[in-house]
């Protein structure tokens, strides 16, 4: 079930980026819920907050290694840590989505624009929520 969720979220992420690339002009905000949310198509060649833009291959290698480790760990995990399993599934989907962008486009497609923050995408949301669940589980799991 966890891998099904990861695949579904990956499809949603890639479909949203496909739509953004074909619909929105680059760097022009479109109000969705002003002043809280805009859609702004940008391409990010770096990591979060556009850090390290020249490190594309490093990010690709790290993402591939992470995907292999998470996939292996997710399959081997017991059912005792459901929030960690869901968290890993979300992190897997998000990492795969951004990895596909880096390989196909040389950068990550971002479009969710919250003023006074950075522009991000669905894959980024999956990664943050996924690691949030994993961290939450570490503090709330019972021995």
Number of strands: 4
The number of helical segments is 4
Strand arrangement across the biggest beta sheet:
1-2-3-4
The major pleated sheet works out as: 4 strands, antiparallel
- Unreliable stretches (pLDDT < 50, length at least 5) are none
Task: Give Rg in angstroms.
Answer: 16 Å
DSSP strand content: 5-15%
For the record, the count of structural domains works out to 1
Average pLDDT, to the nearest integer? 86
Task: Give the class from helix and strand content and strand pairing.
Answer: alpha+beta
Please describe what this structure looks like.
With 143 residues, the protein is an alpha+beta fold. It has one domain (2-25, 32-140). Helices cover 60% and strands 14% of the residues. The protein has four helices and four strands. It has helices spanning 2-23, 56-76, 82-105, 122-140; strands spanning 30-33, 37-44, 108-113, 119-120. A four-stranded antiparallel β-sheet has the order 1-2-3-4. A hairpin with a 5-residue loop joins strand 3 and strand 4. Helix 1 (2-23) runs parallel beside helix 3, helix 2 packs antiparallel against helix 3 and helix 3 (82-105) packs antiparallel against helix 4. The chain is globular and about 45 Å long. The protein starts with a helix and ends with a helix.
Q: What attributes does this structure have?
A:
single chain, 143 residues, 4-stranded antiparallel sheet, 4 strands, 60% helix, globular
